[in-house]
Amino acid sequence: MPVRQLPEQVVNRIAAGEVVERPASVVKELVENAIDAGASRIDVFTDGGGRRRIGITDDGSGMSHSDLALAVDRHATSKLDDEDLLHIRTLGFRGEALPSIGAVAKLGITTRHAGEPHAWSQSVEGGIKSAIMPAALGQGTRVEVSDLFYATPARLKFLKTDRTEAEAIREVVRRLAMARPDIAFTLAGEERAPVAWAAALPGASGRLTRLGDILGADFRGCAIEVRAERDGVVVEGFAAVPSLTRANALGQYLFVNGRPVRDKLIIGAVRAAYSDYLPRDRHPVVALFVTLDSAEVDANVHPAKTEVRFRNAGLVRALIVHALKEGLAREGKRTAANSDGAALASFRPSFAPRPGNWDWRRSPAYPVGPRPGFEGSAATAFAEPGQAAFDVGTPTADVRFEAQPSADLIDRPLGAARTQIHETYIVSQTRDGLIVVDQHAAHERIVYERLKASLARNGVQRQILLIPEIVELDEATIERLLARAEELASFGLAIESFGPGAVAVRETPSLLGKTNAGALLRDLAEHMEEWDEALPLERRLMHVAATMACHGSVRAGRRLKPEEMNALLREMEDTPNSGQCNHGRPTYVELKLSDIEKLFGRR
């Protein structure tokens, strides 16, 4: 078959395959165009999951008659002043969106520029342009897309259900709305109820308001503001406290120069920052905004512009980790249980309705007569069965060890211990409320931080094996391990080659105790293949430290003396990150006196 030049319509449809993957791709491109046009309000309407109709209306600058004529041509854009692709300051720049959409759908554009006497309208169907006609529109641009993929019916087979496609559109608009809190967004469609996000005030407070509207009130109540800056790179945003987690990483959002992107960089950086707070199968909720010189980031690496490449990715990762760790350390004693009203909501009173066939003679308060040996005592006069509910048994701790706690203890952040209940929870009194502490979770964090400090101060203590352990592995795995032998040795694991297909383990970290060297090496090799660094061994040591802390801490069910309870509270105050254990569970819950008074109707 000879080589031939493809027709323009076929070229446009091929190009559309890269840009227009699904209805959500159309919405993304059109909303980005509206943002670049300086819109302060953007309305999005969809029907049939975007397959039947997509409508985007904005109040931006609009286009003139000549601009509209060029806008539907391939590689025609107003967003590049010259041929420099290293200083891209807009969301779009390729000039492919409108012609690609018009090649596979029915596209209608109505726009009005401030310098024009009226609006202009043009339509494109299957790549064929119509004449530009006068139209009526007050300001901005309205884009209508209908019958998506009618020109390429085969693409319709790969679309999912209308509800799934509508949810993908919703996620696109959510990300763009998070990136630009100064713009009002409205999302409507027959698939779900309309959603409106009003424009927020500039600054961190306005950004948190928009994030709370999208991610939920629980995030707003548990958000920690984070910020770091170095060498012209600024990382700022909000991260949820470790008690608020998700089962996947979909709650982690990254924005680079106002552009929503998906990058594995943030997943690894966030996991590293939260490694001391969360179990392996839980993921935090964060929204981070990276601002840097446009020449330091390449946005032209993905057809849909959903990925970027940093010139100095290590600096960006380090700043993300530093910002998150600094924020978490600053708010280390704050947990979701103490900041979002969850504890107060758990105390709401509830009353069971009285059954319709209730018989007062069967009431627990019905008198059954005096007991034998009645001596007229008032105490025995109330000996009906219902009074048995007040028989709580002997106290699990001496609640009268101190009639009035000292003022200096009351004024401490965690107050003065007053009692221990169920031999698990310490109740302390503060100046303006009370605190309930989980003694096991609290001491687990204390022991864990001690182990980490010892590890950093003295280095990894190693133990020499009396008889080296021989581990057989495949050759590729052995080569990967031996290539990092020096780094592994710095963490206390000494290995050397032992013939083909085997390595000899001569020293292991003493912190591991008696360990299965074969399983350890296989685990390390898997991590090295994924991350290509010795860090997983350090994480493994931290995991072991966490396990030792769990087993070496005060167990639930142990009765504590008053002095021990107060000592535990003082250690919590001096320990970083004591608001939650290393599994992410809260270590204490605080109730303010004002909240308690509300529960009893005193306020």
Automatic annotation (TrEMBL):
Transmembrane segments: none annotated. The keyword Chloroplast does not apply. One of its GO terms (molecular function) is mismatched DNA binding. The keyword DNA repair applies. One of its GO terms (cellular component) is mismatch repair complex. Residues 211-329 form the DNA mismatch repair protein S5 domain. Gene3D superfamilies: 3.30.230.10, Histidine kinase-like ATPase, C-terminal domain, MutL, C-terminal domain, dimerisation subdomain, MutL, C-terminal domain, regulatory subdomain. Belongs to the DNA mismatch repair MutL/HexB family. NCBIfam families: mutl, PRK00095.2-4. This is DNA mismatch repair protein MutL.
